[in-house]
Amino acid sequence: MIENQKFRPAQVIGPLGEPLTLESLPPPGTTRWVVRRKAEVVAAVAGGLLSVDEVCERYGLSLEEFAGWQRAIDRSGMPGLRVTRIQHYKSLYERQQRY
């Protein structure tokens, strides 16, 4: 996995196609998480810019919260990260799993 590699890229491609660097990520201690910021952090981990542990420490997130962001993106893309849509997507996936 990328986390185990010693080489870290200087930048990765963000969710909107823009380059992301450590400096362009949300600042440490961010408390207002909009969809774009969540997606940028997930992209940074996927691209190897930060590890999951570093993200959780930097932003004060639990592993479960970050994993939920990753699952939401995998299932529904950026719209799945919207807080107002969580219940809608949750019930949709529960129905899909039954069939």
Which tags fit this structure?
mainly alpha; Arc Repressor Mutant, subunit A; two-stranded antiparallel sheet; 2 strands; 48% helix; globular
Outline:
By secondary structure, this protein is mainly alpha-helical. Helices cover 48% and strands 4% of the residues. The protein has one domain (2-98): Orthogonal Bundle (Arc Repressor Mutant, subunit A).
Fourth-level CATH superfamily: Winged helix-like DNA-binding domain superfamily/Winged helix DNA-binding domain
Q: Report the average pLDDT across residues.
A: 86
Alpha carbon gap, first and last residue: 32 Å
Cα Rg: 14 Å
Query: What is the helix content?
Result: 40-55%
* Secondary-structure element pattern, one letter each: EEHHHH
Annotated CATH topology: Arc Repressor Mutant, subunit A
> Low-confidence stretches at least 5 residues in length (pLDDT < 50)?
none
Under the CATH scheme, which class? Mainly Alpha
Domain count: the total is 1
Q: Largest beta sheet, briefly?
A: 2 strands, antiparallel
Tally of helical runs: 4
